[in-house]
Design goal:
9 helices, globular, five-stranded parallel sheet, alpha/beta, about 15% strand
């Protein structure tokens, strides 16, 4: 796997898994939240965001892109050879996002996968809307439809738990594949 799209509900562990996979597989990791958001939570125009992703994919033969952004997901899906779709329980994602927001609120800097000037704040008015988005995750049906349309040569991994993510990391480890010659993958 050289070009991985990592998607899932906010709080599902995308950025954490992306960093670990990047280290494990020696792949550069591109966090789309860091690319999309400008300081002060200003959104990048959609056309500019799409162009920035295309430039990343043209300039890098190998990559991991972490983030949903369904308006530009087809661009990434057309160039990837694997998709990892994190699907832990909704309540776990909500708890993780609340904890992350509280930690970010107290921190001097935003987390590493976010743009400068974009600290999460659980006391902002729009944070409740974000929690409702996570609860309903309205893009799940659209994502499933896009994944059904992928070519057969694109591997799709659905991971529903932290244990499943650990198992996937183990399966994808270069040490694991050399220990099991002839195995086609996870």
């Amino acid at each position: 796997m050289d070009r991985i799209v990592l998607i899932g509900r906010p709080g599902s562990g995308k950025s954490t898994l992306a960093r670990r996979l990047g280290s494990l597989l020696d792949l550069p990791v591109f966090h789309l939240d860091r690319l999309f958001w400008r300081p002060g939570w200003e959104k990048m125009p959609r056309w500019e965001f799409a162009r920035a992703q295309m430039r990343i994919m043209q300039e890098n033969d190998r990559w991991i892109m972490d983030g949903n952004y369904t308006s530009t997901l087809p661009l990434r899906l057309a160039r990837c050879d694997a998709v990892i779709y994190l699907q832990p329980p909704r309540h776990l994602c909500l708890v993780r996002v609340m904890r992350r927001a509280l930690c970010s609120w107290w921190a001097d800097e935003p987390r590493g996968d976010m743009a400068a000037g974009c600290r999460e704040n659980p006391f902002r008015r729009d944070f409740l809307a974000f929690l409702l988005y996570i609860h309903h995750f309205p893009v799940a049906g659209r994502i499933d439809k896009m994944l059904r349309g992928l070519d057969d040569d694109v591997s799709v991994f659905r991971v529903a738990s932290s244990r499943g993510a650990e198992q996937l990391l183990c399966e994808l480890s270069p040490d694991h594949s050399s220990a099991h010659p002839g195995r086609d993958g996870p």
